[in-house]
Write a structure and sequence with these properties.
The protein has 13 helices and six strands. A four-stranded mixed β-sheet has the order 3-4-5-6. A two-stranded antiparallel ribbon has the order 1-2. β3, α3 and β4 form a beta-alpha-beta unit. α8 packs across α11, α10 runs parallel beside α12 and α11 packs across α12. The longest helix has 22 residues. It is elongated. The structure holds zinc ion.
């Protein structure tokens, strides 16, 4: 069969692939089809310009609405930035629950992290798609280096410091900054593995958590906070009101803030965690020990310096 640009296309290939030979750019004008998604209709008019004024108009013409999927081609010039610009507009338009299919997402795309937090975006990658509900609990394990043996003296890690820092930098700063508890785990020793397990039982821990939650519920009700069910949901202004510190803890916070170069966001996150530790311990003010413990859970601030 000869296609619309005069090329001979072998019949058996058409039969084998179930495809049709190219019949011209406008052969399917107005033809409706389904692409594993909502029905789409191509519109081609050689008399009309394909250019639109701006991203907003392009999105409106695409019929953008909640729950849609937007795919991005990596080979756009400055493609990573095009994705950010489009998502900024989507966010401004108040569209929610958008799934992004990008052939790559890298550091250049960090500006979209807040849109994941506020429910504008869910991320879809080549090997699967994850929908984050608006209230996210993210649990993410990671090796300390490409081989996995960096740190403990029992095994030799052959990774160069350059490859370790390249490996660690794959999780970007803005994402790490939003993780409340970041801890380094040592390998389990033989004795621990065969120990009698003298730690607290799940039932005991559950009772402690429920008691702390009860204190929080009472506190939020007394302050008239609506829609706040746990410390993690406290807004910045509420953090100041609820996370009050002893003078000693205040001093630790001041020096940690400067020494670790904390962002305002991580400062508030630290206080929310410290408040929770204090609630578990049953103290009204956040004491020095609670704040120091919360600081231990900010391993990400130490990752950079080692
Ligand atoms: Zn290694």
């Amino acid at each position: 069969m000869i296609n619309a640009v005069g090329r001979e296309i072998p019949e058996e290939i058409l039969k084998e692939t179930g495809k049709q030979a190219f019949q011209g750019a406008y052969a399917f004008d107005g033809y409706e089809y389904r692409k594993g998604a909502p029905k789409v209709r191509p519109e081609n008019d050689p008399q009309r310009s394909k250019l639109v004024e701006d991203i907003h108009e392009a999105l409106v013409k695409c019929g953008i609405r909640d729950g849609m999927t937007l795919s991005f081609h990596h080979h756009f010039r400055e493609g990573d930035y095009v994705l950010n610009m489009v998502m900024e507009e989507v966010h401004k338009m108040g569209v929610r629950d958008i799934t992004i299919c990008a052939s790559s997402l890298g550091k250049a795309n960090d500006p979209i992290v807040p849109y994941i937090e506020d429910g504008t975006v869910t991320i879809s990658r080549v090997n699967g798609s994850i929908t984050y509900p608006c209230s996210v609990m993210l649990v993410a394990p990671m090796n300390p280096c490409p081989c996995g043996y960096f740190g403990p003296p029992t095994r030799v890690c052959p990774c160069s410091s350059k490859s370790v820092s390249r490996y660690l930098s794959r999780v970007s700063g803005p994402l790490l900054d939003r993780i409340d508890l970041c801890v380094e785990m040592d390998p389990i020793s033989f004795n621990e593995l065969h120990g009698t397990g003298q730690g607290e039982s799940s039932a005991q821990l559950r009772a402690q958590v429920l008691a702390a939650r009860a204190v929080q519920t009472q506190r939020f009700a007394a302050l008239g906070y609506t829609g706040v069910h746990c410390n993690a949901q406290l807004a910045a202004g509420q953090v100041r009101q609820v996370c009050r510190l002893t003078p000693g803890a205040q001093q630790v916070l001041r020096s940690a803030y400067t020494r670790l170069g904390l962002s305002a966001r991580s400062h508030d996150r630290l206080l929310r965690v410290a408040r929770t530790i204090a609630d578990l311990a049953g103290t009204e003010l956040i004491e020095q020990e609670a704040l120091l413990e919360a600081l231990q859970y900010r391993m990400q601030d130490k990752l950079e310096v080692r």
